[in-house]
Amino acid sequence: MEDRAITPILSLTNPSSSSEEDKSVLQIWGKHPLQGQVEISGAKNSALVLMAGALLCAGDCRLRNVPSLVDVVRMGEILSALGVKLKWNGDVLDIDARHLGQSQAPYELVSQLRASFFVIGPLLARLGVARVPLPGGCAIGARPVDLHVRGLQALGAEVQIEHGTVYAYIRGSHKRLQGTRIYLDFPSVGATETLMMAATLADGETVIENAAQEPEVVDLANFCRAMGAKIRGAGTNTIVVSGVPSLHSTDYGIIPDRIEAGTFLVAGAITRSEITLAPVIPDHLTAVIAKLRSIGIDVIAESGNRLRIVPGSHYKATDIKTMPYPGFPTDMQAQFMSLLTLSEGNSVITETLFENRLRHVAELNRMGANIRVKGNIAIVQGVPMLSGAPVLATDLRASAALVLAGLAAEGMTTVRGLQHLDRGYENLEGKLQKLGAKLQRVNADPDTVSDTPTSALT
Ligand SMILES: CC(=O)N[C@H]1[C@@H](OP(=O)(O)OP(=O)(O)OC[C@H]2O[C@@H](n3ccc(=O)[nH]c3=O)[C@H](O)[C@@H]2O)O[C@H](CO)[C@@H](O)[C@@H]1O
Ligand SMILES: C=C(OP(=O)(O)O)C(=O)O
Which of 4, 79, 129, 256 is surrounded by the fewest CB atoms within 10 Å? Predict the structure, then answer.
């Protein structure tokens, strides 16, 4: 099998330096209508946890529909550091964790990617020991891992946190975790996933109560079941896992990315364009579609897993409160804020998941938006227009929000901080260009780049 070709998006950034600012900028010339169909990639948040989940199997696992993202490349580096063999072929990834021999995930890699902490459950279940550095916080919040740790302790693991590393091990010679009942104080996606993976190889039955119900949790459960795990209830608030001694090889396709799909729905809405998206699972976007409708935008489910967005003539304000699934996703909050800046009236956006996820407000205000922040609440007063400006992306979804605002603004917007965008969007600018948007990435100091598009874009 040949090595995966480096896609243009990955070649623009250095995958080994997430914390470093990407020097390239995205120039966007707004007010160009979009048309056509966009292809939605595999879900980032499924791909990352399924890659960790593949460690549970002492054989080969094939993952299909793996998105080409910097985060996925980094997760691959972490698996390689644990002794796992990876082979890429386009969007197909073969993972051979037969020789998983290393229980220590390297700090330099873990510190770049929160999802890397997911390896703790499978390492513990397979090897009886795991040493994983604390992933640390990130731009959107402190993001502790106490629920993961408490759950693993309930499963019988000894856990010590020393020198910034979580050291978990199973006492005694049996080397199996013990099934138990775990109530999560909060339906954390990551903790549910960690505990579900750990429980697949445990001795006896584990019940996870107040579990997260996100589609990516269900995707992980389905992947584990395809490897022979016994899991029921994923997608509800109670997950029951009956431990088995080992898991076997499988071939599994990752679900489409509902957040990428939601971002393109907003791209259609904010540019007042009718576009279609495929493949999507409309049920995963219920809360997002309901909010688009209350703003005045229709979304039509068509055959072939397609969604068509039909923009309305008049957009009105709406209130949004981020909630665990099936509530409105925090990962769509920033993109909707861009849309609401251009919707008539006052919208109240309440971010309940992460304590620092409103940093895009200042940047949107630079573009002429009228947004005030009080604690975790943003009050967006709709304005008739946005104007292009230089802006800085502070996290993944903030970067998407600024690109969306740039598509609707008068004149040119220059987005910096693209290392965030590349973590989670596969070739966003290529997909937007195909729909007719005028934008280009330039590898240069924003002060020296031309403010007219290259001939290919005009
Ligand atoms: C790779 C991945 O799948 N990332 C997603 C995952 O992140 P992640 O799994 O980190 O999100 P969680 O659901 O765990 O976090 C939700 C809240 O719970 C808190 N918490 C979490 C765990 C814990 O042990 N203690 C604790 O206090 C967090 O700080 C946060 O305030 O779900 C989030 C919520 O939908 C999404 O925004 C992320 O895109
Ligand atoms: C917050 C996100 O991702 P992560 O949990 O990987 O930081 C996101 O996808 O918006």
Answer: 129
For a substitution probing ligand 1, which of 143, 166, 185, 321 has the most ligand atoms within 8 Å of its CB?
143
Cβ–Cβ under 8 Å, residues 135 and 114: yes
Q: What is 336-359 written as a DSSP string?
A: HHHHHHTSBSEEEEE--S-TT--T
Beta sheet of 306-310, edge-to-edge order: 36-39, 275-278, 306-310, 298-302
The pLDDT tens digits for 296-311 are 999 999 998 999 999 9
Max distance between CA atoms of the chain, in angstroms, equals 69
pLDDT of residue 18: 45
The Å distance, Cα 44 to ligand 2 centre, comes to 9
Among residues 453, 455, 372, 369, the alpha carbon closest in space to that of 411 is found at 453
Cα 68 from Cα 260, distance rounded (Å):
13
Q: Give the residue among 236, 213, 17, 210 at the shortest CA–CA distance from 113.
A: 17
pLDDT more than 70, % of the chain:
92
Which residue's entry shows tokens 């809405």?
A: 269
* Residue 2: Cβ within 10 Å count: 8
424 lines ligand 2 (CB under 6 A): yes
For residue 359, say whether it is annotated as part of any ligand binding site.
no
Give me the domains of the chain, ranges plus CATH numbers: 8-41+256-457 (3.65.10.10), 44-253 (3.65.10.10)
Question: Would you call 61 a catalytic residue per the annotation?
Answer: no
From 259, 310, 275, 257, select the one nearest 436 (Cα to Cα).
Answer: 275
Q: Which residue has the tokens 């304000």?
A: 317
pLDDT digits (tens, 9 = 90+) for 417-446: 999 999 999 999 999 999 999 999 998 664
The response to whether 22 counts as a known ligand-binding position is no
Instruction: Answer yes or no: is 364 a known binding residue.
Output: no
